[in-house]
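Whether sequence alone determines local backbone shape is best considered at the level of individual chains. Part of our work consisted of pairing the sequence of a single chain with a tokenised description of its backbone. This step matters because it turns folding into a mapping between discrete strings. For completeness, the protein is quoted in full, as a sequence line and a line of structure tokens:

_____
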Amino acid sequence: MRAAMGKRSHRPITVPGFRFSGIHAGIKGEGALDLGLIEVRGPRGAPGRVAATFTRSLAAAAPVLVSRPVAASGRVRALVVNSGNANACTGRRGLRDARAMVRLTARALGVDAREVLVASTGVIGAPLPMAAIQRGLPHGAQALTETGLPAFAEAIRTTDRSAKMAVRRVRVDGTEVTIAGAAKGAGMIGPDMALATDAPGHATMLAFICTDAGVALPLLRRLTREAVDRTFNAITVDGDTSTNDAVFVMSSGQARHRTLTRRADLAPVEAAVHAVMLELAQAIVADGEGAAHVFQVEVRGAGSDAEARRLARRIAASPLVKTMVYGEDPNWGRVVAAAASAGVPVDPERLSVAIGGVTIYRRGRWQGAAVEAKARARMHRPCVSLRIDVHRGGGACTLWASDLTETYVRINAGYRS
């Protein structure tokens, strides 16, 4: 199968087989968009395919519990999402409300409720304003358009400073295929998600990826799991895993190529899905609540990839490392201390730490004031790299994180007010 890798495009974002809308239903004030819809139409009236990952939090929100079995079926015709209210920790009423959102959406679109997904984001613990949602859903259905992704992306925002979208276009067997997505997230970002078909176990992280590529469901699930692990599961703002985190990957199958059933044939679509997810994931980190810097944590030479991930997560989530990055101070001792407390084998005498590409601590020895000054100058950049080499094995992991500022504290100290 011949294929060419796509590039970013400035054309209006449309995905054959998909329509989108975002409206103001009255969940949030001042006319803000707060209710989004996606409609999926497969070939000859068939439903689309879906693979999804959800938070592994034991306090998973009602929409997560309602959407898991739908995603496990692999069939989707619509998705509804609200912002301003998480519908989390709301008990039986929350489950009734999430199911009511599904039924109201199915009725407005004339589809089977068993093929409708639901998601929510916002304040935890408050019941959904169902009267506003019931009034708004018919308007959301009427507003659906092929070019409605920007309105949808706006409707899912909470503390985000801007809407987040990404698109790639590739060719498969000479046919153009589109992969587009929207995401939201700025706080309560420390995703830990698993597929809906896996054993149940991340302001929330939500992402919605849409493609017209025809991908067999087992391949779509594998693609989703692997891409999420390398992107959304590899970011952190504050290390807090949300009750509502979810990533939905939906395929209409409208592209005029044969259904992709082999991993070898999936390469261009797989690369484009990863590129879209990575762009959205990095946008979430860059938009982290109060963030002044983004930093990349690259761990190499760990005993295994799993050990490398534990090390990278511990370093990226450390408040002392985060404030070090914010203060533009190459305090390598904080990095060593975080690595040594990650619960995996680390020998400080073999450890190396580079900040901004400058190796400031090499195999257990500080490299001196002149080297430290060079690293400090590199930290003035908006994106800072931290590289840790354990010199123990072949395990590796890369994560992206935001720093920790006074603004983050102010935002979250007064979030509900």
Q: What stands out?
A: The first strand starts at residue 3 and ends at 4. The chain has two domains: 3-286, 294-413.
